[in-house]
Amino acid sequence: MEIGLVGLGKMGGNMRERIRQAGHTVVGYDRDPKLADVGSLKELVQTLAAPRVIWIMVPAGEATDATVNELADLLHTGDMVIDGGNSRWTEDIKHAELLKAQGVAFVDAGVSGGVWGLQNGYALMVGGDEADIARVQPVFDALKPAGDSGFVHAGGVGAGHFSKMVHNGIEYGIMQSYAEGWELLEAAPNVTNVREVFRSWQEGTVIRSWLLDLLVRALDDDEHLAGIRGYADDSGEGRWTVEAGIDMAVPTPAITASLYARFTSRQEDSPQMKAIAALRNQFGGHAVKKES
Amino acid sequence: MEIGLVGLGKMGGNMRERIRQAGHTVVGYDRDPKLADVGSLKELVQTLAAPRVIWIMVPAGEATDATVNELADLLHTGDMVIDGGNSRWTEDIKHAELLKAQGVAFVDAGVSGGVWGLQNGYALMVGGDEADIARVQPVFDALKPAGDSGFVHAGGVGAGHFSKMVHNGIEYGIMQSYAEGWELLEAAPNVTNVREVFRSWQEGTVIRSWLLDLLVRALDDDEHLAGIRGYADDSGEGRWTVEAGIDMAVPTPAITASLYARFTSRQEDSPQMKAIAALRNQFGGHAVKKES
Amino acid sequence: MEIGLVGLGKMGGNMRERIRQAGHTVVGYDRDPKLADVGSLKELVQTLAAPRVIWIMVPAGEATDATVNELADLLHTGDMVIDGGNSRWTEDIKHAELLKAQGVAFVDAGVSGGVWGLQNGYALMVGGDEADIARVQPVFDALKPAGDSGFVHAGGVGAGHFSKMVHNGIEYGIMQSYAEGWELLEAAPNVTNVREVFRSWQEGTVIRSWLLDLLVRALDDDEHLAGIRGYADDSGEGRWTVEAGIDMAVPTPAITASLYARFTSRQEDSPQMKAIAALRNQFGGHAVKKES
Amino acid sequence: MEIGLVGLGKMGGNMRERIRQAGHTVVGYDRDPKLADVGSLKELVQTLAAPRVIWIMVPAGEATDATVNELADLLHTGDMVIDGGNSRWTEDIKHAELLKAQGVAFVDAGVSGGVWGLQNGYALMVGGDEADIARVQPVFDALKPAGDSGFVHAGGVGAGHFSKMVHNGIEYGIMQSYAEGWELLEAAPNVTNVREVFRSWQEGTVIRSWLLDLLVRALDDDEHLAGIRGYADDSGEGRWTVEAGIDMAVPTPAITASLYARFTSRQEDSPQMKAIAALRNQFGGHAVKKES
């Protein structure tokens, strides 16, 4: 089949390649003319035969919002938009309504796979109407991994991004769990082969996983991670997962702890711990450390 | 080689079988005469040719302590004891010293694998002297999984159980992360195929793992886990992991959150939440729920 | 001075009384005609002499929103609206803009004091322009406690409710801290006089506070809180505090833990712990508790 | 009455003064001869008339242990030892048994008050037999604050230190709650008078407390705590409180979060966050910060 693809960065570029390898036609647009097949969204729409399917793969938030808005003006009844970026699921509801008013269908697709996706395939979690999804199934099949899993129609509009968001929240918690364990082993007085302990866990244990494999790979590069600072960004989905829990009164203590550990890792000096130090000094005469 | 095995329960019985399948001789002792090859520890020691290797596989705490004490009296210079149970690593230090006074070597072995170990092999994390471990390597090789990993000499005495303890602490955190994600998806208004979302994650995602596979298996048995109560025991290693963190001033927020979630799951009514309810009533006139 | 007061419930009714005791004129409106001095918002506006000051004391969310919208139509240049309810601070920004378009000033006031406010005074945290606040200072002075503190101009529009929100978040954390301590003491094998321990803390300790006094009062009513269920609602500000932290990348682990403890207290059976139980059963053969 | 006092540091020295001001006789011993009234523990015992009461006020752990051991040899049937230091309650059980074998009574006393105790009195939580405590009541009365509370007989041996330990655990949680709130307010875009917000809370609010008063005092010294590093030690009781919870399966999420925040505050670079950064780099190609 034929598909338009908006956004040809690290993710989008690889996805174009994987879809083409499966024999489909991809017309790509990107603001960077060196990456693009066409010069504008308008030209993209004109190039594709109706009814069109356009997959958006641009940064969540303003960029996605602007692209959906522009496409709402350019597309016609029977066309379809898929948002494969990292949009918040609440945005999907808005975008679906906007497009529906133009007779344009909307499907949201959460995509996992990172830098390994081109080779291994991308796990896809999609939300929307059954018939809409069926129409794009060949592209989903091209993108997904080879096995039986790696693709799910999770529910109505927004369910794809909601599932991907929760996937990332879980990812935060799993990573934090390994990280805490690694720090414990590194601190233990009698454990001398921490890297080898992690390697040994790759088979036969309860905690074997792909993330464990990646951690072993990282330790093979730098056994004690001496060259890496303990500084971690977060990219939206972790925060949204915690907020979704708060909205639905679902406690997420492990995922939240993982998010907060990242917040703290980015602070040069913790304001709240200044307050603790000040209080200890006030009631107990405990010495404080002066800022230098 | 020849080895004595004390404790032939769920774990020990399967391990005897796996060691025998590898062509070694196992003389097993258990308090239950129907399981045992010999009638007493004393008979076990008499049956084995010196220098002896005896693997203890009994419950951590009093039972292991009693067995080590009794073996310290029965064994002789050049013999060796391996504790493959779930002992706390601090116990290993004590046991090694006690046995050393009799000229008996000590190795601690953390064993992972659960009910799947007989078939897939047991992951082994061992602590002790290089030479002692080399002596039992054929048995370790018989027990471990087929691949390159699944066995590690983690460090000195106690390092095996310390590593296994941390393994279990990580396990708590990973399980809690999936569990939080599952509850979020079940609570989401627009996600209708939660089980299939989990199944889809088994390929191509960042969070694919053996525990994920097991959760899919459980959901295949009971899609919404309607027949299972939200009640979880804990078995020592989780607590010890948190306490090891406290001893070494290593924060373990995700693992600790996982442990506390289990504590809470076992309370019919939370005393601390009674106090919260009472306080809210005092200052805000908020209604309390009466005990029925 | 003269002020209109919208909402004469538990809080608003007592506030009317306290303002009148200070010699000011209060014209009150409430949907319940038995409580109201006038029959409608329109009549309230007609009754007050321009320039008018109207204090809104209705539930946050839709009710406050509707009242502000209606007042925006009824009021004129030079009038002023104060929102003394529990609105989220982000609502204040919206309301201030809406009213500003009509030439109407806006001040937000976070109010603390609960059922004790009529007698002890209400602590007030207000946000808005200096001149606007100065104009209503006589009413603020009537409401606030007798001493030097209990009133603050916290910053621009929204700062009053933001401060009140954080006040409540801190309240969650303090209450949770006492509650955890109480449960520990009740569980301790050798502590026989838990209530008296709490009473003793009221003087000379680092943790003496008004909330501690209230807890002692509650324990005097019911020493072991046997008649109260461990069930706690939450009322918005705790969630908003955590979300504000997430928005600004400020970790709030103790306040968040307090919020989650309330979520959990309201679950008959925890879905996430069902998943934990199912997983333990899968890998370790651990028995699960069946739902009865 | 007459009492011996061992340990005349910051706490012990002030306590000697407060007891003397109440008209009692205190014979003090300290390793530092400039502080001491007698030259040795032996001389202290010889100076006091039988039956003797000796109050120990030395650092918990080895120093207290050594002092109790030495006194067990020096004292006689009918004498009494009070441990007023910060001993772990499990030590009390040991010490009571050791002394009982010599016919010497033991009482444990948790003491709160810090640098303010001399002036305001010390809150006392004591454990032991009714008759033993009655015998020293005059000294407890001299030390405690003036009002009706500030003293409790909490239960059997150990109950005093257990209660004091929980007091300190609660203190951790309350301090953390204020500290989180302070950081939120400092980070808020529209709150310009954070210090004044805290000052205003001192009257009429739900969260007024002595710790709040101290925080206002600290902010009066240094409005944004610019001169203080966000670095906080912990002194045993916080850890023990969390461990007591773990032993008794009582979740203490807020207190634990407070303890972990202190651990983190003391790390220059977080090992666990190195692992998180390494993992993000492995699967997502996210840049890491290099160690400089």
TrEMBL record, chains A, B, C, D:
One MF term in the entry's GO annotations: NADP binding
GO BP of this protein: D-gluconate metabolic process; pentose-phosphate shunt
Residue intervals of the 6-phosphogluconate dehydrogenase C-terminal domain: 160-292
Pfam family, one: NAD_binding_2
Keyword Oxidoreductase: yes
Keyword Oxidoreductase found: yes
InterPro entries on file: 6-PGluconate_DH-like_C_sf (IPR008927), 6DGDH_YqeC (IPR004849), 6PGD_dom2 (IPR013328), 6PGDH_C (IPR006114), 6PGDH_NADP-bd (IPR006115), NAD(P)-bd_dom_sf (IPR036291), Pgluconate_DH (IPR006183)
Keyword entries, A-Z: Gluconate utilization, Oxidoreductase
Protein family per UniProt: Belongs to the 6-phosphogluconate dehydrogenase family.
Protein name, UniProt field: 6-phosphogluconate dehydrogenase, decarboxylating
Upper taxonomic lineage: Bacteria, Bacillati, Actinomycetota, Actinomycetes, Catenulisporales
